[in-house]
Every structure is written in structure tokens, then in C-alpha cells.
Amino acid sequence: MVAFTVNGKEQNVNVTPDTPILWVLRDHLGLTGTKYGCGIAQCGACTVHLEGQAIRSCVTPISAAAGKKITTIEGLSPDGSHPLQKAWIAVEVPQCGYCQSGQIMSAAALLASNPKPSDADIDSAMSGNICRCGTYNRIRRAIHQAAGNDTQGGAA
Ligand code: FES
Ligand code: FES
Questions:
Q1: Does the keyword Cell membrane apply (predicted)?
Q2: Helix, strand or coil for residue 130?
Q3: 43 Cα nearest atom in ligand 1
């Protein structure tokens, strides 16, 4: 039994301690906003926050979350009004959408630690999140928009 908090709610899950957080979220708690991509910490689709840090939930065992707080895309804001979520809609970032919850969670961790990131800061923070649809330019624009940075140029 491992006890932890997900999106502000206490959870007790009866799994072996080495079970990846991703499977606890998806299979035991029904939080399917977090996606399985590669399973080997290479794509970022499974990104959630553990104590505010962006982590790859596919390779992080639930034992690492004991007594700690996990935040998933479902818990980023109570009503979908996080600045990144608004910007994502305004910029129309997603194509297929599969990678996007992981992208947003990485971006949210970036803005929490660096509220006014430069292009280089964004590229560095987001480099572990792969998008097969190639939405990178729009992701960058949306992060700038959420940060309130002046941005130029049209749709990318
Ligand atoms: S599924 Fe975790 S990084 Fe790809
Ligand atoms: S929007 Fe399709 S993989 Fe990123």
C-alpha cells in the first residue's frame, strides 16, 4: 500500500512499490489525461509533477511518491483556466493532441520556476517532450503568451 496525494486528494493504492506512477494514475485512478508514449523516459508524453517538479511518470516508481504530491493535467487548474490552458486554446496548439498534456505539464513546471522564459529557456525546458505532429513553434508561442511576453509573428 502506498499513500500519496493526487490533485489535492489523498490516495491509497494497493500496488507493488516499483509500479510506475503512470500506471497507477491511468489504471488505478482512471486519470487518463497522462499518456503512455515510449515508456523509457524519451518522449515526455507521461509528464506529471511530483512536488512541483516535472517528472517522467513512466519510469518513476510509485514508491518515490510516498507521502508526496502528484499533479496531473486534470489537476493543473480546477476549471481549465490555467494561463497555459488558455494560451493553448488561443494559439490552437494541438494537432493530434497525444503529446499535449505532457507538453503542458513541462511548460507549467517551467513557468513556475521561470515566469518570463526566453526562447532558449523554453527550448531547453521543453527539449524532452517530443511531438510527432511538429507543433513546437506553436508550443513556444503559447508559452510566451501564457507568460505575458511580447510575441511577434503569425501562426507557425
Ligand atoms: S512515456 Fe514516459 S517519457 Fe515517454
Ligand atoms: S500534437 Fe500530435 S504528437 Fe504532438
A1: no
A2: coil
A3: 4
How far is the centre of ligand 2, averaged over its atoms, from the C-alpha of 15 (Å)?
Answer: 31
Query: Ligand 1: distance of its center to the CA of 35 in Å?
Result: 8
Q: Ligand 1 pocket: which of 43, 73, 101, 103 to mutate (most atoms <8 Å of CB)?
A: 43
Beta bridge mates, 10: 5
Give the single-character DSSP code of 111: H
What pLDDT, in 10s, does the model give residues 70-88? 999 999 998 999 999 999 9
In this structure, which ligand is nearest to the CA of 47?
Answer: 1
46, three cell numbers: 507521461
Distances (CA, A) of 4 to 30, 34, 130: 16, 17, 28
Q: What digits encode the pLDDT tens for the residues 21-77?
A: 999 999 999 999 999 999 999 999 999 999 999 999 999 999 999 999 999 999 999
**1 falls in which pLDDT band (50, 70, 90)?**
confident
- pTM for the full predicted model: 0.95
Distance CA 149, CA 112 (A): 15
